[in-house]
Amino acid sequence: MLRSTLIRTAIAGVAVLGLAGCGGGGDQLGSDNAGSSPAPSKVTSITVGSADFSESQLLAEIYGQALAAKGIEVKKKPNIGNRETYMAAIKDGSVDLVPEYTGAALAYFDKNSTETDPDKAYEALKKALTPGLEVLEKSPAADEDTIVVTKATADKYSLKSLGDLKGKDLVAGGSSEFKVRSAGLKGLKEKYGVEFKEYKTLDAGGPLSIKALTDNQIQVTNLFTTQAVIKDQGLVQLDDPENILPPNNIVPLIRTDHKSDDIVATLNAVDAKLTTDALTDLVKRIDVGKESADAVAKDWLSKNPLS
């Protein structure tokens, strides 16, 4: 939840999501294994953070507003940055809760993971987490990384799969994370033998990358499957038979010391009601309709009561 990103600035490190990660989660929040420390019976306040793209900000707003409706004091830290940045924040206690993506988070905590099944990736993530962190139930809603080209580029070079990019004289662009991650140029080179003549660092599935792609300044970029621009502009998502792009179901990542029964029940109820189609529509309202994440979250919660 690579993250992503007309759109949003992504899932990073994230970049949002959204969204595969690099690097390990070596920091220790405690001496026990993740999830083994007893959770508090009551939590009265929580700080909710988000990555630096609209979908993550929307999910953080939904989580925060749902918890506030249950009488919990909610502090917000939106737009923290890419995955490495907000992971540092949740590890040091600057935030207590962030929306995450199963496959991208797994790649962050276990850089050697090769899980491509959504359920297995979720179970592997629970085992790989830094002590003191937990994930709650995963949502059926998912936002996968996807690598896209315009229809004109696909037709010109007969592109259907990522392997078809090999040997082509193309420029790629996107986030700084996409350049170095396994769900990006690193994986394209290792699994498909694909290299580009140039890489332009822009944003994570955001307006800079979209404009560069549609203006043919770049020919390949990383977007996210909940972005309406893919369908609206007829972009072509290239097949990934080697599975360098992980499954990315939405999941709350929370500090164990802020996991109470009320919080768990509320967040699990939220994620159970989210769907990929609904999330796509909500993100479009922000990225295209220019509505605020706060307003879109409030509207969704009003139409999807949790009790």
Automatic annotation (TrEMBL):
Gene3D superfamilies: Osmoprotection protein (prox), domain 2, Periplasmic binding protein-like II. Residues 45-303 form the ABC-type glycine betaine transport system substrate-binding domain. It comes from the Bacteria. InterPro entries: ABC_Gly_betaine_transp_sub-bd. GO terms for cellular component: ATP-binding cassette (ABC) transporter complex. One of its GO terms (molecular function) is transmembrane transporter activity. This is ABC transporter substrate-binding protein. It comes from Kribbella sindirgiensis. The lineage of its organism: Bacteria, Bacillati, Actinomycetota, Actinomycetes, Propionibacteriales.
